[in-house]
Specification:
Blueprint (H helix, E strand, L loop, with lengths): L3 E5 L3 H10 L5 E5 L14 E4 L8 H8 L6 H8 L1 H10 L7 E4 L5 H8 L3 E5 L9 E3 L15 E5 L5 E9 L5 E3 L3 E6 L2 E7 L5 H17 L4 E10 L2 E8 L9 H4 L4 H9 L12 E8 L13 E5 L9 E9 L2 H12 L4 H16 L1
Parallel strand pairs: 1-2, 1-3
Antiparallel strand pairs: 4-7, 5-6, 5-7, 8-9, 8-10, 8-12, 10-11, 11-14, 12-13, 14-16, 15-16
The protein binds adenosine-5'-triphosphate (ATP) and magnesium ion (MG).
Amino acid sequence: MSQRVWVLGAGQLGAMLQHAGMPLALDVRPVDINESHAPSLSDADLVTAEREQWPETLVTHTLAQHSRFINKAVFGRLADRKTQKELIDSLGIATAPWRNVANDITANELRDQLGERVLLKRRTGGYDGRGQHWLRTDDDQVPDDWQGEAIAEQAINFEEEVSLVGVRNAAGDCVFYPLTLNLHLNGILYASVAPLARLQPLQAQAEAMLGNILAALDYVGVMAMETFRVGDQLLINELAPRVHNSGHWTQAGASISQFEYHLRAISGMATPAPQIIGQNVMINLIGTTYNPAWRDLPCARTYWYGKEVRPGRKVGHINILGTDVTQVRETLVLLGDLLPAALYTDAIDWSLKALKD
Ligand code: ATP
Ligand code: MG
């Protein structure tokens, strides 16, 4: 009988884990946390999660109690931005300067400590830029609903955003993908490009940062580190203890995808270094209705999540891969014509420029 792996959560990440599990002879079962029946687990099963935070439900209670819930202690610690920042600070790793937003702290105190531009972030539950609030220059007080519930961060004048996705196995060995360049618009990831030769000089710095964190947490599986590049220094923006949107390009562009690595690591399989294939660009599909013409693009593969389309919601992504960069560029231009200009002109232009640099 094949090894069963339960995934807490049944969104697109769970689905892509399930897909990656089939060739590994793993029986991967994403579970909707609001399901009315508890999954029936056996002792030999493994449990992982596609999200770092969850409410208490019958399903989450059942899965989180299992003795083989991998990295169980890590989720709560990283899902709360305050404890995540404390961990990064305790390891002496660079991160955007921050303060806890205690109930009695004023907006002026935060500006005195962090500078003129201060970003409030909810300690838990935020994603895709939701759960963020820029402090207004005329605010004296922290808005009521942010007091005691948020951290405050200094606005970082970064040159660009770069992420590292890596995996650590139970023996403590780590493997990392090449750094990925990311474009966020309004707090949401639109495009990723990897690999890029000009980011190579930052690779060792990034691997040391994430490697230290993985070891400190005795973590097993895939973790992503989002950073800001300021000159030749990387500052951590945030950590995600799971497969990550900025690693989706590895489905096409690496011999072992991030989804496969995560499953390999948690189930005790080998985690050999990946072969990286060609030039990759990933474009997120955000609030866009399905267009069958995407499927006809050369060197592109569309992943559609089957979710209801709503403005600002991630509903799929397209991986473009080519060993010939000219072909990747041509595909990007063709794709640009098949996406709403208002949302995508900047993202396509940015991607084309990233391939030129
Ligand atoms: P995710 O969906 O990745 O979990 P999120 O909503 O949890 O995102 P962050 O990753 O913290 O939030 O922030 C989203 C984006 O907002 C960042 O990628 C960056 O573009 C911008 N941002 C966040 N923090 C800062 C900062 N301190 N200074 C400047 N820009 C920032
Ligand atoms: Mg983020």
